[in-house]
Amino acid sequence: MIDDPLILTILIGSWVFALGVLALVLRWLLARRGRRQVAVSALGRDGEGAIQVPVLATFTGLSGMPSLFAIASNSFNPRLILHPGGLDYRVTFARSVNFDDISSVRIQTAPATTNLVFAFVGGVFTLSANVGSLSVARSVLDAFPELAAKQVINREQGH
Fold first, then answer.
1. What is the DSSP string of 36-104?
2. Residue 159's closest CA among 118, 113, 107?
3. Distance between CA 74 and CA 46 in Å, rounded?
């Protein structure tokens, strides 16, 4: 048995600290899960035909490199809005791109993430948007046939 009050205080403090950290991590994970559920249900067109896609994060990558390697990211205030003829997005700065300037789109899945990856005509950069689920990614592409026509099918998608 531990008789020294200092050691006992340190042990109890360590346990309280560890439980506090665990509670914060669980709270963060549950909040993230809630954001994903909102993303699935929040797709809808506005009066001008635009869809504001709820994204968890956006990334800028380099063409030809795996999208795992991002040179810029935004999980604080990411944005992806698709409208007839083009899209608006924000990674570090807000940008607009016409669908004609998009060379390909692919859905990339990994554990706990689903990204729409856009490659641009003659560009060295790519845009990846973490949309949270495969159903959201497919719904976005289904909503804009001109974008879906540029989709590159990955083997892991299975269709």
1. HHHHHH---B-TTS-EE---SEEEEEETTS-TTSEEEEESSS-EEEEETTEEEEESSSEEEEEGGGEEE
2. 107
3. 24
Tokens at 80, concatenated: 């992806």
Summarize pLDDT for 67-119 with one digit per residue, the tens: 778 899 988 889 999 999 999 999 999 999 999 999 999 999 888 789 999 99
CA distance 90 to 60: 10
Strand (E) or helix (H) holding 133: none
**Nearest CA to 83 among 74, 96, 69?**
96
pTM of the model: 0.72
